[in-house]
């Protein structure tokens, strides 16, 4: 507890000097009567002496004890009697004092000393207490040059009151912050929200202990959070006094986001006053203090906070589409609707020119053409009042539209005021079709009935879970129906964000996820690119981890190649929050098994880009100190692959980092899921084109089923020329355990118990499977810098070489094998002759058994 101890006369002195301009409220100290000698002495004589005798001081009734022989005419606070004659170099412990005298306040009366000299006083508050000191007399203290007293003095003395006051006592000394709320479990952190700072002067903040000296080695954070997209935060520092030339330890910073790793907007140290103004949604002011610096002529800062509702013309796009497509193109609309749209266009253009591009009632937003916009914010308050407010969002045919609502206030009861988000484009007559409304309501993607209020954040400043919808088609209508006139005290409004997603290029949007899409090999273009999300407007109300995923699902005769081509420097959020982990950041290590993110703390605390297999295996991961020379990182995969873009602490102002990746779906049928019913055959790897990148990896998970409905003895030869470790790729043989649900949704053969493993080092190996194991699953798993090269050949022996009463064949010895094969060939020939007449495998099976003399 750094604040437990306050030390030294000098500290007391200068703290008081710095505060001259402010009127300090002082916790009143109890006095027994107005005519008493001092705080504890009622009168200097007239009472019995402790050791006998009648003419000693009379003490205050409560909490005072006689000084005894050293000063018979004085009393002191119980617990401090031993210092009656010399109150120098002492410690006053709040708990002890309370125990002995029943009081949490008292008086310090220094001895009269010859300078230069020093007496120190340590005041030790209990938990939950602060220390207040009031110096009311100071005599001949000499000159202090910052490190020592430079002047000889005589009879130097001071008198002071002190009080251990509860922290919850707001009547006491000094400044009290206004309008903010303490962030629980922190030393000195505060939250200020726009909703609690309406009106000037309602929100004031200051360094701890202001206007006194602030405690050393502190870090206090002041988070400013806005609920509206347009709100700007104005911080007016009316006084800043930090020690001179200590800017490395004593300073203020303002950051664009709620995290201490967010980008720096301003840094203050030597300024005396300052005014900063920045847009929301989150700003973090951080105050840092170093060691105490003599001559203690500083006292921190005090600032007023204002939240300004400002429509910012320099804000990032949106701009309303300037060049509209010819209205004639909108063939499905009736003449009336077209006129209505034309009017809306006019209105929209008016908005774009007059209101700084903010989208309000009557706007038609186009996601295409010159000046078309792909995402933006809307707010019904940016346009003149209309009881019926309609916003049209028109995309290209392959688009879907997402709308997220941030704040709204819908007042009229029984749904007379409401918000609806409707699929497609709708026009509404000025009178409003009441009958039609409910029918339409059923078709609404989202309907909010009045009375209803939503604020983007909860009282603790946390953004609420998003309220968003995704269209099925390319057009969306937002309708707000409200009272015919605007209420004076409470406007009915809605604000939020929208974005168009071109599913053809950006993948199929996951409606429930914040930022996820899927690219299907058969439906998406064969080549394309993905990059960091550009629909930032939608993420305005995210101030935590942002994870965006692109899932690539190749068809069974395809593979997918993903090439991370460009990557920006990434921030890591290790220092986030009040926890300083001390653990290093995230390191990227590229080796034979791909690039790996190595971090002491969970990966979600670090910005990263990862390529992840369907089963969650990280095939490649880049974070922290990756080097541009390692790019491109390429993964070619024969099963589904997920590109994960993760920003540890996203804020609208900081927006994470950029990357660019190219993908291509390749036609290559060598992997995927295949079933072979022939009794012999060969599967071999085929050369695929390589990019030649240093960090190219192959991820293959191929499953082949060798299936037969004839009882057989199966031999599988596997060979490879490669000298690779087993962990880079291997082929396993499994029993068959039926069809199971595949992670990509389809059915896939489930591999049962493992029978054998083939590693490339083995060069070639023949596996003899148990008799009657007619169906086996062969699985290739590879994660390797080189494409695995292999040949798998199989052959079946459908008759038993030994007589039919014998036991199943043990694994044959090499020589026995050859003769058995001769035997087998003869049997095969026989069978072929027989089966040639009957072109049915089933018959053939029966015939085989017949030929072997089995019962059937
Ligand atoms: C207070 O006094 C009592 C008895 O005099 C003692 O037992 C106790 O430990 C004291 N507490 C403190 C905090 O000094
Ligand atoms: C008080 O302590 C200071 C240094 O800590 C010392 O120089 C001084 O002599 C002490 N005074 C008395 C009266 O003990
Ligand atoms: C204070 O005075 C002492 C002795 O004269 C000197 O050594 C010291 O540097 C001075 N300190 C300052 C801050 O001027
Ligand atoms: C969306 O609106 C445009 C313009 O009105 C129209 O051409 C297009 O067919 C609409 N799309 C859908 C899916 O309704
Ligand atoms: C891949 O499979 C799909 C259907 O599964 C088929 O339409 C397509 O023609 C196949 N492509 C190749 C190259 O075999
Ligand atoms: C595959 O490619 C490698 C190197 O590109 C080459 O040496 C090898 O002969 C090729 N194999 C086949 C079967 O084309
Ligand atoms: C087989 O290869 C995969 C992928 O490289 C690897 O994860 C697995 O550990 C390997 N199995 C054995 C037994 O080495
Ligand atoms: C397997 O290895 C043996 C020698 O170890 C060799 O004679 C044989 O040709 C190899 N078979 C294949 C298919 O490579």
From TrEMBL:
Residues 188-308 form the CUB domain. InterPro entries: CUB_dom, Non-NMDA_GluR_Accessory, Sperma_CUB_dom_sf. CDD domains: CUB. Gene3D superfamilies: Spermadhesin, CUB domain. PROSITE patterns: CUB. The chain crosses the membrane at residues 825-845. This is Jg10712 protein. It comes from Pararge aegeria aegeria. The lineage of its organism: Eukaryota, Metazoa, Ecdysozoa, Arthropoda, Hexapoda.
């Amino acid at each position: 507890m750094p604040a437990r101890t306050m030390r030294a006369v000098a500290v007391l002195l200068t703290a008081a000097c710095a505060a001259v301009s402010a009127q300090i409220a002082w916790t009143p100290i109890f006095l027994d009567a107005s005519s008493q000698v001092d705080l504890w002495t009622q009168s200097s004589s007239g009472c019995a002496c402790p050791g006998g005798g009648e003419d000693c001081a009379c003490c205050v009734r409560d909490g005072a004890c006689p000084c005894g022989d050293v000063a018979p005419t004085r009393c002191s606070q119980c617990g401090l009697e031993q210092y009656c004659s010399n109150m120098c170099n002492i410690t006053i412990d709040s708990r002890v004092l309370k125990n002995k005298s029943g009081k949490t306040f008292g008086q310090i009366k220094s001895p009269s000393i010859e300078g230069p000299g020093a007496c120190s006083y340590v005041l030790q508050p209990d938990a939950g207490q602060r220390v207040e000191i009031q110096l009311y007399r100071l005599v001949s203290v000499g000159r202090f040059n910052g490190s020592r007293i430079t002047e000889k003095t005589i009879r130097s003395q001071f008198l002071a009151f002190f009080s251990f006051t509860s922290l919850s006592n707001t009547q006491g000394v000094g400044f009290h912050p206004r309008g903010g709320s303490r962030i629980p479990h922190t030393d000195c952190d505060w939250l200020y929200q726009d909703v609690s700072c309406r009106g000037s002067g309602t929100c004031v903040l200051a360094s701890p202990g202001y206007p006194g000296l602030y405690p050393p080695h502190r870090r206090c954070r002041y988070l400013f959070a806005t609920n509206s997209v347009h709100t700007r935060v104005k911080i007016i520092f009316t006084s800043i006094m930090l020690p001179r030339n200590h800017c490395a330890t004593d300073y203020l910073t303002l950051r664009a986001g709620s995290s201490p790793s967010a980008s720096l907007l301003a840094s203050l140290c030597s300024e005396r006053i300052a005014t900063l103004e920045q847009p929301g949604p989150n700003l973090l002011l951080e105050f840092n203090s170093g060691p105490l610096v003599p001559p203690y002529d500083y006292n921190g800062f005090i600032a007023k906070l204002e939240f300004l509702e400002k429509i910012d013309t320099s804000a990032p796009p949106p701009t309303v589409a300037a060049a509209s497509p010819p209205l004639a193109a909108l063939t499905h609309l009736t003449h009336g609707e077209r006129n209505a749209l034309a009017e809306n266009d006019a209105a929209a253009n008016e908005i774009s020119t007059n209101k700084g591009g903010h989208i309000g009632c009557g706007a038609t937003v186009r996601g295409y053409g010159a000046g078309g916009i792909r995402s933006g914010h809307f707010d019904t308050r940016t346009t003149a009042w209309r009881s019926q407010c309609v916003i049209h969002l028109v995309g290209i045919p392959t688009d879907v539209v997402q709308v997220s609502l941030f704040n709204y206030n819908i007042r009229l009861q029984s749904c007379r005021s409401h918000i609806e988000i409707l699929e497609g484009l709708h026009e509404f007559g000025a009178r409003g079709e009441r009958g039609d409304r409910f029918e339409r309501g059923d078709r609404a993607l989202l309907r909010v009935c009045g009375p209803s209020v939503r604020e983007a954040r909860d009282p603790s400043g946390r953004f609420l879970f998003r309220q968003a919808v995704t269209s099925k088609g390319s057009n969306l209508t937002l309708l707000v129906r409200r009272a015919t006139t605007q209420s004076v005290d409470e406007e009915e409004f809605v604000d939020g964000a929208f974005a168009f997603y071109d599913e053809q290029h950006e993948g199929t949007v996951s409606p429930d996820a914040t930022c996820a899409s899927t690219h299907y090999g058969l439906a998406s273009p064969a080549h394309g690119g993905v990059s960091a999300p550009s629909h930032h407007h939608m993420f305005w109300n995210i101030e935590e981890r942002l994870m965006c995923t692109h899932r690539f699902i190749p068809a069974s005769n395809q593979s997918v190649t993903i090439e991370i081509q460009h990557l920006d420097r990434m921030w890591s959020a290790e220092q986030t929050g009040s926890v300083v982990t001390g653990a290093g950041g995230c390191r990227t290590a590229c080796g034979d098994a791909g690039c790996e993110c190595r971090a002491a703390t969970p990966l979600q605390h670090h910005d990263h880009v990862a390529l992840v297999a369907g089963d969650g295996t990280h095939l490649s991961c880049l974070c922290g100190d990756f080097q541009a020379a390692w790019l491109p990182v390429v993964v070619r995969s024969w099963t589904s692959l997920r590109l994960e873009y993760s920003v540890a602490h996203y804020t609208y102002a900081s927006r994470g980092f950029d990357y660019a990746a190219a993908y291509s779906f390749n036609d290559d049928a060598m992997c995927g899921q295949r079933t072979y019913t022939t009794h012999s055959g060969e599967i071999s790897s085929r050369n695929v084109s390589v990019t030649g990148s240093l960090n190219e990896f192959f991820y293959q998970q191929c499953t082949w089923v060798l299936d037969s409905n004839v009882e057989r003895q199966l031999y599988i030869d596997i060979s490879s020329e490669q000298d690779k470790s087993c962990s880079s790729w291997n082929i396993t043989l499994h029993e068959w355990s039926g069809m199971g649900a595949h992670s990509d949704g389809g059915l896939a053969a489930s591999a049962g118990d493992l029978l054998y493993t083939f590693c490339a080092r083995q060069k070639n190996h023949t596996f003899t499977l148990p008799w009657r194991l007619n169906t086996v699953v062969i699985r290739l798993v590879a994660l390797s810098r080189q494409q695995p090269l292999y040949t798998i050949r199989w052959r079946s022996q459908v008759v038993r070489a030994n007589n039919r009463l014998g036991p199943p064949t043990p694994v044959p010895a090499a020589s026995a094998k050859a003769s058995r094969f001769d035997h087998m060939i003869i049997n095969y020939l026989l069978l072929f002759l027989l089966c040639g007449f009957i072109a049915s495998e089933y018959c053939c099976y029966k015939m085989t058994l017949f030929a072997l003399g089995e019962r059937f």
